[in-house]
Amino acid sequence: MSTGDRYVAGPASAAEYKLGVGDRIRMVVYNEAALSGEFSVGANGSVALPLIGEVPAAGRTVTEIAADARARFAEGYLREPKVSAEVIVFRPFFILGEVAAPGNYPYAVGLTALNAIATAKGFTPRANRDVVQIRRQGETTETTYRLTPELMVYPGDTIRIGERFF
Asked: Which residue(s) pair with 49 in the sheet?
């Protein structure tokens, strides 16, 4: 079990963020209010859009989704469609172990492990305040990180706070 300062890079910006089940996007089709709106990434990993149906979304950026929607709308529905999209709700993160209120919580851009712990009402008296285990979305194993103010949390992460040994 490593307790080094291991850093796993996440998205550098919201434009690079890869969508997943539970995310919610806002799509705007210029001058087409009936085709614009808020859409969730469903359990099948796609978003259901008016006229064009299911568009694969899981593992793709909002820019890719908008480009796909633009191409599909242009196939006989609209002439030169202008489509933009943005993430409005990220999938939650999960925290368990030695925190006062374990559970799932809404993700906010820039969330750190310390912010996540504060969201879960802080450490219990038995908590190990030096290290944290994080299982990143899509991974099958936890990685141990030294708990620092810079340690980032990403949507879908599962954070586990262990007990300290006296």
From this structure: 53
pTM: 0.76
**pLDDT (average), residues 120-124:** 97
Going by C-beta distance under 8 Å and a sequence separation of 6 or more, which residues neighbour residue 134?
113, 142, 143, 145, 153, 157, 158, 159, 160
Q: Is the pLDDT of residue 129 over 50?
A: yes
Strand partners, 48: 54
Spatial strand order of the sheet with 24-29 comes to: 37-40, 24-29, 83-89
**What is the rounded (10 degree) CA torsion for 65, 70, 71, 73?**
120
Q: How far apart are CA 152 and CA 114, in angstroms?
A: 9
Tell me the C-alpha distance between 94 and 102, whole Å. 8
Contacts of 44 (CB under 8 A, 6+ apart): 54
- Residue 69's pLDDT is 96
What is the chain's length?
166
End-to-end CA distance of the chain: 18
